Each structure stands twice: as structure tokens, then as C-alpha cells.
Amino acid sequence: MAYFGDVAAIRTTSLPGALPRAFPTPVTFRAELSDGLETTVHLAAYHQAATTVRVVALAQAQPLQAWCLRAGVGHALVGGFFVTATGQALGELRSAGIRRSSVPFTAPWHELRACVHVEAGAVSIARRPELPADPRGDLLQAGPLLVRDGEPVAVDGSDPEGFSVANEQFDSDITAGRHPRAALGVANGMLLAAVCDGRASDDAGLTLGELAELMASLGARDAINLDGGGSTSLVCDGRLVNRPREQDGTSIPGGRPVSTALALTPA
Asked: Quick count: other Cβ atoms within 10 Å of Cβ 16?
């Protein structure tokens, strides 16, 4: 099995491939990159029809594992970006059909960047213009879109959602280089929650192009990039399964405080 995109490439001999079944207990594997470096990937898969997904705005920024413990949530994935200085959520944010407080992305990119939309139990991932103007249910805006109709659409060196040209709202250009990353994908009736480690001598992290290839190789029909770097967090059965690190490689025990999350509740 192999999947190679236009720029980045992952040697997928160590990847599980398109997934035949759900497994909310995560699996961990090593992904070999095109230049011979490797990174650790943590993956959990949930039956979409049997999993309740909620967009959650945390009352105050806190590590995802700590929030899960306090809220009694067993499974959660980091959500969207936030303003580092204040902890305010970045991008459009809705729950139960109500628009919640957040800082819009820089114009005109706020009208384009990709979202997770949850309505009546169905989860969809698309760029903002492809979703209702005033959607019901929950919506979390992040991006960029990684996979569409089974094909990677995030290509290293390309910036269709303006994350590089309008990077003033971020600590750094999220499109540049390899970092810890988080993604959500929808695939054949399943939800794929994936994170990778990085910023360590034995964990290179992934570029956005490599992350897109990873999600496509796992069978995602559509996939979105979520907050990454030191905020990268996946909690399964109440346990943080990845290893968050700062830019300099310093470990972040328990994870960095985050402002939004995707709570996943298997039946």
C-alpha cells in the first residue's frame, strides 16, 4: 500500500490503511516520511451513527484532559484556534444553533476557512461557503481543509485559505514546516480522530500536506486540520494519548490549555 501526493509524501507501509471498523480505544503507529524521518501517530475511530459529537466552548482555557475529567467526558479532540493572550476562540463558533462569542478570522478568510458542522447526529466537514449561512446544530471553524471527496487538497506551498498570508492572529505560520498536528475526518460511516507527535528528535511531526496524505490514506472522505502545535490533544477513555510539546521541544505535561473541543460520546 502506498499513497503519494504532489509534494509531501508518507511511506505508508506502517499505516493501517482504510479502516474496516471503529476502535474508540486508540492505536499508535509510526509513520515514515519521504525523507526517512518518522513521527508517531495516535488514531481513534468512532461509528458516526453511534457517537454523539458536540462542539464545546470551555468556560476558561484549560488542558483538554483536565476539562474532560471535570466534565465527565471520556473522549475529546482539541477544537479550533484561540487568541494566545486572552484565550478567546478564533473563528466562527456555534452550539445548539446559537452563535457563541469568538474572534472572527481576518477578512476575507473568515468567509472561507473550513468548518466542522454537526446537525441531527450528522457530521460534515467543508469550507464555510458550502455550509448554510445560519446553520442549525454545532459549528466549529478551523482549517485548512485537508481532504475532500477522498483526495488531499492541502498541498505544501499552497495556501487557499489564507493561513500564511494572514498569519498575524497566530503565534507562527501554521502552514510552514512540520509540527504536532490534529485532524478530524469522516470516512465510510466513521469519525477519525488523529493526532501526531512532533518537536522531538524521534518525532518529526507532519506538514499540512503530509497530514492531508495521512488522512486520505486512512480512508477519510473529508478531513479538517484543527489546532495543533503545543495545543495538539486527543483524550480517549479519559487519558491524553499524545505528547504535547512547546516550540523548543519542552514537554507539556497534561497538555496546553485550549479554548474549544470536540466531545465524542460513543453509545
From this structure: 17
pLDDT digits (tens, 9 = 90+) for 205-229: 999 999 999 999 999 999 999 999 9
Contact, 241 vs 235, CB < 8 A?
yes
Write out the three cell numbers for 61.
482555557
C-alpha cell at 159: 495556501
* Predicted model pTM: 0.93
Q: Centre a 10 Å sphere on the Cβ of residue 87 and count the other Cβ atoms it contains.
A: 14
The whole-angstrom separation of Cα 145 and Cα 191 is 16
Tell me the one-letter amino acid at 103: V
Tens of pLDDT, residue by residue over 70-117, are: 999 999 999 999 999 999 999 999 999 999 999 999 999 999 999 999
Cell of 185: 475526518
Strand order in the sheet with 38-47: 3-4, 9-11, 23-33, 38-47, 190-196, 181-187, 222-225, 145-148, 151-152
Q: What φ, ψ does residue 249 adopt, rounded to 5°?
A: 95, -5
Nearest-5° Cα angle at 116, 178 to 164: 35
Indicate the DSSP class of residue 110.
Answer: G
Using CA atoms, how far residue 237 sits from 20, 65, 75, 240, 243, in Å, is 21, 10, 6, 9, 16
Closest CA to 123 of 74, 190, 219: 190
